Automatic annotation (TrEMBL):
It comes from the Bacteria. It comes from Dokdonella ginsengisoli. Residues 1-18 form the signal peptide. The lineage of its organism: Bacteria, Pseudomonadati, Pseudomonadota, Gammaproteobacteria, Lysobacterales. PANTHER family: THIOL:DISULFIDE INTERCHANGE PROTEIN DSBD. PROSITE patterns: THIOREDOXIN_2. The keyword Lipoprotein does not apply. Keywords: Signal. This is Thioredoxin family protein. Residues 1-128 form the Thioredoxin domain. InterPro entries: Thioredoxin-like_sf, Thioredoxin_domain. SUPFAM superfamilies: Thioredoxin-like (SSF52833).
Length: 430
C-alpha cells in the first residue's frame, strides 16, 4: 500500500505548544496573505497522545522547517473554536493534524500518535501534493489507483463509510472493475464497510468486516480494529466469540513484541496496543496473559520514567492507566498525588483523582480535589468538572451548594457546549 498520496489519511482520534494564531479563522486569514497552507494541530490537556507528539515529534529541525512552509494553528479542542472546528472537519479523536489550503479546503490529515519517521514524510506528501479531495476524485475517475486509494482513505479517516462506498460505487464501471483487482483498494473498501457498520451499530457486520480488515496489513492500526471486534462481538455465543477472537492474539502479541516494546517503537501508541491486548486476553479467558501484558507495560514505563514523572507526561499518564486497568489500586492512589505535584498547572489530575474517589464512594475526599480542578478548568472541561462537583455535593446532601455550582458555571459558560450543559443539569436533578 502506497502512502505518498496528497490526501492520504492515517487512521487510527490550553495549547500544548508555542503560541501562534489563536483561532482557525485567524490562521486562514494569515495563510491567504502568505499563500501558504494551514496545519491545524488539535490537542487538549487530557490527551495523552498529544503529549507524546509534543515531546517526541513536534520539535527539532523538521518542526522548525514546517513553520516556514505552513501557518500552524495549535487549537485546543476544549475551546469553543476548537470544538466547533472539530465538528466541522469531522475530527473524532485526538491528536489530529488537518491540512487546509489557503481557501479552507482540506488537503489531508494525519490522526493518532505517529513516530517522527512516519509523521514528517506523510506530512511532506500532503503538502507537496496540494490536491483537494475534489482534485483526487477527478483523477480517480480516469483510473488512477493512487487517487482512488487517496479518496477512500480520506472517507475512512472521517468515519464516513457509507459515503465512501457510495462514491466508489459511482465510479465508471471499467475503472471500478480494474480497481477491484488491487489489494490495497480492497482493504480500503473493507475498512469503509467497517466504518459504515460501526456507525450503524450493526454488530454482526462489524464482526465480519473487522475480521477481513485484520487479515490485511494494517500495521499500527491493528489495536483499534481489535477493539472494534471485541466490542461488537460481546453478545456472540461463547464458542463463536472465542473462534472469532482467538486468531487475533498471535498478530497482536507480535505487534507488541516487534513494534511497541522495542528501543525505537514503530507504533507510537503503546497504550492502545497494551489495553487491546489485555482486553483480548480477558475475553479469551487467559487471565495469566492479561496480567502479564499489564505488568510488562507497568515495568517498562517505570523503567523509562525512573523517579521523574516530569520526564515524559505521555508515559506518566500511561502508567496511571495501566495501574487502573490492572486493578493495582493502592499503587494508583499513591501515584495520583505525585502526578498532581508533577503537573500542577492544569485541572487534569485533580479531576481524575477526584473522579476515581467518587467512583469508589468517597465524595468527601473527592470534593476538595474537584474544587482544585475547578480553579484551573475552562471551556468544555469546566462543565465536566462541575458535573462531578455536583455529584459529590449531592452525595454529601449539600443540594444548595450543588445548585450554586451549576448557576455559577452556566453563567461562565455562556451558550457554548449544549450537550455538556444538559449533562450538568441532569446531574443536578438525579
Amino acid at each position: 500500500m502506497k502512502s505518498a498520496l496528497p490526501l492520504f489519511a492515517l487512521l487510527l482520534s490550553g495549547a500544548l505548544h508555542a503560541s501562534g494564531p489563536a483561532t482557525v479563522d485567524e490562521a486562514l486569514a494569515q495563510a491567504k496573505k502568505a499563500h501558504q497552507p494551514v496545519l491545524i494541530d488539535f490537542s487538549a490537556p487530557w490527551c495523552y497522545s498529544c503529549y507524546f507528539m509534543a515531546t517526541h515529534v513536534l520539535n527539532g529541525k523538521e518542526w522548525d522547517a514546517l513553520h516556514r512552509r505552513a501557518v500552524i494553528a495549535e487549537i485546543d479542542a476544549d475551546s469553543p473554536d476548537g470544538n466547533a472546528w472539530m465538528k466541522k472537519l469531522a475530527v473524532k479523536a485526538l491528536p489530529a493534524y488537518v491540512v487546509l489550503n489557503e481557501d479552507g479546503a482540506e488537503l489531508g490529515r494525519i490522526l493518532a500518535e505517529q513516530p517522527r519517521e512516519k509523521f514528517y514524510p506523510n506530512l511532506d506528501s500532503i503538502l507537496a501534493g496540494a490536491s483537494t479531495l475534489d482534485d483526487l476524485k477527478r483523477k480517480a475517475a480516469t483510473g488512477s489507483t493512487e487517487a482512488i486509494a487517496g479518496v477512500l482513505g480520506s472517507y475512512q479517516a472521517r468515519g464516513e463509510g457509507q459515503a465512501g462506498l457510495d462514491w466508489y460505487a459511482g465510479l465508471p464501471p471499467k475503472v471500478r472493475d480494474a480497481a477491484a483487482k488491487d489489494p490495497s483498494i480492497t482493504l480500503w473498501r473493507d475498512r469503509l464497510e467497517l466504518a459504515r457498520a460501526d456507525k450503524a451499530d450493526d454488530d454482526a457486520a462489524v464482526v465480519e468486516a473487522a475480521q477481513r480488515v485484520l487479515a490485511g496489513e494494517i500495521g499500527c492500526d491493528r489495536p483499534y480494529v481489535v477493539d472494534q471486534l471485541l466490542e461488537a462481538g460481546e453478545k456472540l455465543p461463547k464458542e463463536r466469540r472465542h473462534a472469532v477472537l482467538a486468531p487475533q492474539k498471535k498478530p497482536l502479541d507480535a505487534l507488541l513484541s516487534q513494534q511497541v516494546f522495542v528501543a525505537k517503537p514503530s507504533c507510537a501508541d503503546q497504550r492502545s496496543s497494551v489495553i487491546a491486548a489485555a482486553d483480548l486476553d480477558k475475553a479469551l479467558g487467559d487471565t495469566a496473559a492479561e496480567t502479564a501484558v499489564l505488568n510488562r507495560a507497568v515495568d517498562d514505563t517505570r523503567a523509562r520514567l525512573g523517579d521523574d514523572l516530569k520526564k515524559d507526561r505521555n508515559a506518566a499518564d500511561n502508567l496511571r492507566v495501566y495501574l487502573a486497568r490492572a486493578g493495582r489500586n493502592a499503587e494508583l492512589d499513591a501515584l495520583y498525588p505525585k502526578l498532581i505535584a508533577a503537573y500542577p498547572d492544569d485541572y487534569v489530575y485533580p479531576y481524575r483523582y477526584g473522579k476515581s474517589l467518587l467512583d469508589h464512594d468517597q465524595p468527601a475526599q473527592a470534593l476538595p480535589l474537584l474544587e482544585q480542578a475547578a480553579e484551573k478548568a475552562y471551556g468544555v472541561n469546566r462543565l465536566a468538572v462541575a458535573t462531578l462537583r455536583v455529584k459529590a455535593l449531592k452525595a454529601l446532601h449539600r443540594q444548595a451548594d450543588a445548585e450554586q455550582v451549576v448557576a455559577d458555571v452556566l453563567e461562565q459558560n455562556g451558550r457554548w457546549f449544549p450537550e455538556q450543559v444538559d449533562k450538568l443539569k441532569e446531574a443536578l436533578k438525579s
